[in-house]
């Protein structure tokens, strides 16, 4: 047996190559989920050529996925699937049903184990990815199965599909519907899920961007308010001459109006803090006799560059060690608005930025991070656990994901799976506000959506499958019934559970046509039977006639020579078995020629008929055989006879012929004589008629020679010399 068929190997190889190419171009679904179609080629090979060729094709298809996914798990999952399908096909299971079995029993559990224990994939994705894998498998198998169904029969490689059991119409119809249904439902479910997921993601993106913009603006307004408070206070103080008490009172009032400043101060041109709010701050720092802020940015920017300045975040000093953002502006003398005499500064309490966070309607789903121009955290929502002044470290993620969302990781920076989707807003002083939403709930949402969609799909599949069964049975049951009950047609005709109003028109018409044909066939059969019976009678009559013609002499209606010769051995055997005597006699009409010559041939015939009738009357036992042996010569064979009575009986007959006037024409009677040569035996038999004939003929000759009208009869012996004449 040839193990590898070159043609089959080429077929498997070419399809494998096509699968490899198609698998290099997976269709992106949500996130990093992709739909693969190339595997349909090993489904085709499994159905046509069985498991081992399918294994080759599957390995090639898996190579394409290995290149795209950079993971070796396709080399386990899909070759196994190909072997499963190939063996299932050998057992004559439909490939789609077999594949559903594979993914439920082997594929999905195996994939789960691989993902859980071998591959790096976050737990949150497992259920979703596993489900998707199974659905994908069923999708490409149904696609492959449909292609096989649609391929013209001549393209099927028949060699491997030999000895398949014929599937019922019902099964075939159900399977074809199921293939179509599975494909259509899966594709439409995937398309609609994806459209809806994309829509949802756009919503999420828009919402994030809106929130970032809104919160960014709020932050800007918040800062602007405080900047303008410092700015206004600086101008206002610059218009009034320095008066320590008055300024302190003004500073305290201002602080009261802007409680988000953790502290406020006024410093002179040497950077020495002269006034503060709360005043207690100054009293607490009395020990630091000359508390100087000359080295601080906020002093230098406001005093030397004479701008209203907002600082990055930094650790406060002097009045406490809180991380703060300082807002400062220069102070002038009323008469000299060019040369500053000091600064006014307010330190914003970073905790107050939580007010911004409070504005988010859904805090469980959103977090914010506000960083300064140095990427140091000013404020982060509590769940993120980022302390102010710490650097905001994150990594961008989800590069392979099909999504319009920007994504980043904060906790596991090297992980491929994204932790957050985000939008950011850059505030005009160089700060950045990030609005984050965890990615996992989005996955969960998609997972729920997929689960709901496919549950509905499964339900509709089951309902439709049941419907298909009903429709298919409605079509096939009458056909089955027609086929099964063809012989009991009348029973079928009355069976309105099979043929009722729901029976399709074509099948109903077919059933009526078959019924009509059947009735015509029956009547034709009856007619034929009648004709045959008639012909049989005619034939039997003809046969009888033929047999009689073959056995009887036409003129005398005695048996002819052929019959006598054929049946003689049987008569001989019968006598030999019972050791009974048999007599063999030749009867010849004397001078018959002269009758012909004198009265005509017809007269001769009449004489022959008359003599024959006399013979019939005389030798009438069932076992006696009288035949016309030729011309005017007759044979009389008398089995089971009494040897003593043979000659007297023959003599009696001879005498009666001699005494009887024989009518040979109208009013013409003549007298005839006969001569008989006979032999009998009760201990010596011979199945050859010629032997008997010869012995009897000798006696006939003797009778003729001795003057005719006599009987010469003797016992038959093997030796002619032993003969005892009884004449
Ligand atoms: N009418 C008629 N004559 C027949 C038939 N068959 C034979 N014959 C005649 O029977 C005659 C027999 O004549 P032969 O054999 O010379 O014998 P025979 O005249 O009877 O004389 P012997 O036998 O010596 O007494 C012939 O003339 C035949 O033509 C037949 O069927 N019908």
Automatic annotation (TrEMBL):
Database matches in SUPFAM superfamilies: Nucleotide cyclase
Catalytic reaction equation(s): 2 GTP = 3',3'-c-di-GMP + 2 diphosphate
Domain GGDEF: 580-716
Record-listed E.C. numbers: 2.7.7.65
Gene3D superfamilies: 3.30.70.270, PAS domain
Superkingdom, natural source: Bacteria
Keywords, comma-separated and alphabetical: Membrane, Transmembrane, Transmembrane helix
Transmembrane segments: 12-31, 40-66, 72-88, 100-119, 134-152, 173-192, 450-468
Enzyme class: transferase
PANTHER family: DIGUANYLATE CYCLASE DGCM-RELATED, REGULATORY COMPONENTS OF SENSORY TRANSDUCTION SYSTEM
Protein name: diguanylate cyclase
Species per Swiss-Prot/TrEMBL record: Shewanella algidipiscicola
């Amino acid at each position: 047996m040839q193990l590898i068929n070159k043609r089959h190997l080429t077929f498997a190889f070419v399809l494998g190559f096509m699968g490899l190419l198609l698998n290099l171009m997976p269709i992106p679904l949500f996130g990093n989920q992709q739909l693969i179609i190339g595997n349909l080629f090993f489904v085709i090979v499994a159905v046509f050529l069985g498991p081992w060729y399918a294994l080759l094709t599957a390995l090639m298809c898996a190579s394409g996925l290995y290149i795209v996914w950079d993971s070796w798990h396709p080399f386990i999952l899909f070759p196994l699937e190909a072997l499963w399908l190939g063996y299932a096909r050998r057992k004559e299971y439909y490939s789609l049903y077999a594949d559903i079995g594979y993914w439920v029993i082997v594929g999905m559990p195996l994939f789960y184990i691989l993902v859980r224990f071998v591959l790096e994939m976050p737990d949150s994705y497992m259920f979703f990815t596993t489900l998707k894998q199974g659905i994908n498998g069923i999708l490409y198998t149904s696609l492959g199965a449909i292609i096989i169904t649609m391929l013209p029969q001549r393209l099927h490689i028949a060699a491997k599909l030999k000895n398949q059991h014929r599937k019922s119409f019902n099964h075939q119809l159900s399977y074809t519907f199921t293939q179509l249904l599975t494909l259509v439902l899966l594709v439409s479910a995937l398309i609609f899920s994806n459209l809806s997921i994309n829509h949802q993601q756009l919503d999420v993106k828009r919402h994030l961007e809106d929130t970032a913009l809104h919160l960014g603006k709020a932050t800007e307004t918040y800062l602007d308010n405080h900047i303008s408070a410092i700015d206004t206070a600086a101008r206002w103080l610059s218009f009034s001459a320095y008066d320590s008490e008055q300024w302190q009172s003004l500073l305290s009032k201002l602080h009261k109006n802007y409680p988000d400043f953790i502290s406020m101060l006024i410093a002179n041109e040497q950077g020495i803090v002269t006034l503060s709010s709360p005043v207690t701050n100054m009293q607490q720092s009395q020990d630091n006799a000359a508390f100087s802020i000359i080295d601080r940015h906020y002093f230098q920017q406001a005093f030397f560059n004479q701008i209203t300045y907002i600082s990055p975040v930094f650790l406060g000093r002097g009045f406490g060690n809180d991380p703060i953002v300082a807002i400062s502006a220069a102070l002038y003398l009323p008469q000299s608005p060019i040369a500053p005499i000091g600064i006014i500064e307010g330190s914003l309490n970073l905790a107050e930025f939580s007010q911004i966070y409070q504005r988010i309607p859904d805090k469980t789903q959103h977090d914010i991070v506000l960083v300064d121009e140095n990427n140091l955290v000013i404020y982060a929502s509590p769940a993120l656990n980022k302390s102010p002044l710490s650097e905001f470290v994150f990594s961008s993620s989800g590069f392979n994901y099909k999504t319009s969302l920007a994504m980043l990781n904060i906790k596991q920076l090297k992980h491929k799976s994204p932790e957050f989707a985000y939008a950011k807003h850059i505030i005009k002083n160089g700060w950045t506000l990030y609005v984050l939403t965890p990615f996992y709930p989005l996955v969960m949402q998609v997972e729920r959506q997929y689960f709901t969609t496919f549950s509905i799909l499964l339900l509709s599949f089951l309902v439709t499958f049941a419907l298909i069964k009903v429709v298919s049975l409605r079509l096939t049951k009458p056909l089955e019934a027609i086929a099964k009950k063809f012989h009991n047609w009348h029973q079928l005709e009355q069976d309105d559970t099979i043929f009722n109003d729901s029976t399709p028109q074509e099948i109903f018409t077919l059933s009526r046509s078959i019924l009509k044909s059947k009735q015509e066939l029956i009547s034709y059969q009856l007619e034929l039977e009648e004709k045959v019976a008639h012909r049989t009678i005619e034939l039997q009559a003809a046969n009888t006639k033929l047999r009689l013609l073959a056995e009887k002499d036409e003129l005398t209606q005695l048996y002819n020579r052929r019959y006598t010769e054929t049946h003689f051995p049987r008569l001989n055997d019968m006598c030999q078995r019972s050791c009974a005597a048999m007599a063999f006699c030749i009867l010849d009409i004397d001078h018959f020629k002269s009758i012909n010559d004198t009265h005509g041939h017809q007269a001769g015939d009449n004489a022959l008929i008359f003599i024959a009738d006399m013979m019939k009357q005389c030798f009438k036992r069932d076992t006696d055989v009288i035949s016309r042996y030729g011309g005017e010569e007759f044979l009389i064979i008398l089995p089971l006879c009494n040897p003593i009575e043979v000659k007297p009986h023959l003599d009696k007959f001879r005498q009666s012929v001699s005494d009887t006037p024989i009518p040979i024409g109208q009013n013409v009677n003549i007298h005839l004589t006969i001569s008989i040569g006979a032999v009998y035996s009760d201990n010596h038999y011979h199945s050859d008629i010629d032997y008997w004939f010869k012995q009897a003929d000798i006696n006939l000759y003797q009778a003729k020679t001795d003057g005719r009208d006599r009987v010469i009869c003797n016992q038959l012996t093997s030796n002619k010399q032993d003969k005892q004449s009884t004449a």
